[in-house]
Amino acid sequence: MDEPRILQAVPNITVVGDLILDRYLIGDATKLNPEQPGVVIRVDREEVRLGGAAAVAMIAAGLGANVTLAGVVGRDEPGRRLQQLIESHGIEPHLWIDDRATTWKQRIIARGQLRPDRCDREVTKPVNNHAERFLSAVSLGDILLVSDYGKGVCTSHLLQALGERTRAASVAILVDPARGRRWSDYGHVTLIKANRVEAMDVAADETRPLAMARRLADKHRCSVVVTYGKHGMVAAERDGGTWYLPAEVTHVRDVCGAGDTVLATIAYAMLDGHCLRRACPFALGAARQQVEHFGIANVGQP
Asked: Class for domain 12-20+49-101+126-290, per CATH?
């Protein structure tokens, strides 16, 4: 595989989508829970990370891009922490701030192991018209990434407005879709990156990986990348080839952020002039690095 070229200019990537604060309670399992089956976790510290579309922005910034992030945060403590983290990673914020509760997810790590339970607080109703208009005016950059976690930011009106602007400016759109959403809602896009479950939800009765990617690319007139976790990924170019990439064996500690990493890395590689067939191995390698960490981390340049 050829080595990526050094970028002649720093690329500008814009990310639009649902912002999430990822919380990790880290400690030790100290005794059995006397109240019900389970254990008592002694919490030694808490860590917070950028999640959702904010994680995509962080990863893209870590790769070396100038990043603008558009989303919604609440006037609450998680919202303030999100804004501080965004600023600390050198990301340009384009944030609508209102009384809507900020989405957060809380996980527990005990004795170096991620516990199976997770606590979420989320609001999924669509954002209001004022937020839509504000977010739709974000600078487009050299490429636009839509990170839809189904929390209400990626409304039909917002997607339509962004689609019209990107077509007029000849800016590519890459989408990570929300589960259960029709892919046609995203309009005419350049690429859709989905996981296996998301792809199968919209692929009717086709479950064979390569055939499914091809069918989806032909139906939606865009390139499609479908990730399969430890089994790698399949990709189908619009009006092009279809291929499978196996994943290297690695020690998986936390799958959180693998898909975000694939989306950001493909975008960065495309801005470096790589075709999708060459971008996918970089993205797969970055995702392998990502799952070796607890929480979403910067994985460096491909």
From this structure: alpha beta
At 33 the pLDDT is 85
User: How many Å apart are CA 138 and CA 59, to the nearest integer?
Assistant: 19
pTM: 0.90
Helix axes 258-271, 53-63, angle to 10 degrees: 40
Tens-digit pLDDT profile for residues 164-206: 999 999 999 999 999 999 999 999 999 999 999 999 999 888 8
The alpha carbon of 121 is separated from its chain's Cα centroid by a whole number of angstroms, namely 18
Would you state the pLDDT for residue 8? 52
pLDDT in tens, 229-257: 888 899 999 988 999 998 775 666 656 66
**Backbone torsions φ then ψ of 168, nearest 5 degrees:** -65, -35
Where in the chain are the domains? 12-20+49-101+126-290
For the annotated catalytic residues, the residue numbers are: 260
Question: Shortest CA distance to 275 belongs to which of 244, 301, 247, 240?
Answer: 240
Cα-based distances in Å from 113 to 41, 84, 129:
12, 28, 43
